[in-house]
Amino acid sequence: MEQKNLVKILKEGGVAVLPTDTLYGFCASAFSKDAVEKIYTLKKRDPRKALIVLISCLDDLKSFGIELEKYEAKLKEIWPGRVSVVLPCDKEELSYLHRGGKSIAFRIPDKKDLLELLERTGPLVAPSANPEGREPAKNIEEAKKYFADEVELYVDGGELFGDPSTLVSFDDKKNFIIERKGAVKL
């Protein structure tokens, strides 16, 4: 499958399973409420839990109402990389993303082809490709067993073994607080 078709599917509100910088993920436009809701349904995910959003650059945060100046220096220390950072986002029109929690976790991946995709599609939600509570798919065959033809596209990246991203937030002094241990030790 050409990247051009993948970009078209994602821009038109479709859902794809593809290799991210950590695991296979469900990917869809962060700005397509319908696609985001489809992922919640497919994963049988707790509707109160927000999804991680992959971005291509720090400037993408402005689309979510994030005051970049407050966090830029610290984010540059860890990005690109396998660390997702919870940042405040209280835009009501994005409540389908922050799920009422008024924050969203973001990550700039350190993977060239994924960054190129994000530059073409814009920000993508990217939770792991598995029903909630089950093991993440390590390959496309496992993902297809979970979701069959309920996804518009599967992109095969071979076997993927790894940990999910490390999840951090900030304290009031802009120091990192580890929320979930993962791929990167801080």
List keywords for this structure.
186 residues; alpha/beta; DHBP synthase; 9-stranded mixed sheet; 6 helices; 20% strand; globular
Output mean pLDDT. 93
Number of helical segments?
6
- The helix-and-strand class reads alpha/beta
Radius of gyration over all CA atoms, rounded: 15 Å
Unreliable segments of 5+ consecutive residues: none
Number of domains: 1
Q: Biggest β-sheet, characterized?
A: 9 strands, mixed
The count of DSSP E runs of length 2 or more, i.e. the number of strands, is 9
The helix/strand series, from N terminus to C terminus, equals HEEHEHEHEHEHEEE
CATH topology category name:
DHBP synthase
Question: CATH first level: which class?
Answer: Alpha Beta
Helix content: 25-40%
Q: State the end-to-end distance.
A: 37 Å
Under CATH, the homologous superfamily reads DHBP synthase
